[in-house]
Amino acid sequence: VSLPTTALCVLAIAYLPECMLALAKGWCLSPRSVTAMIVRDIMLPAIWARAWFGGAVEWRGNAMTIRTRELT
Question: SS3 breakdown of the chain: % helix, strand, coil, rounded to 5?
Answer without folding.
Answer: 60, 10, 25
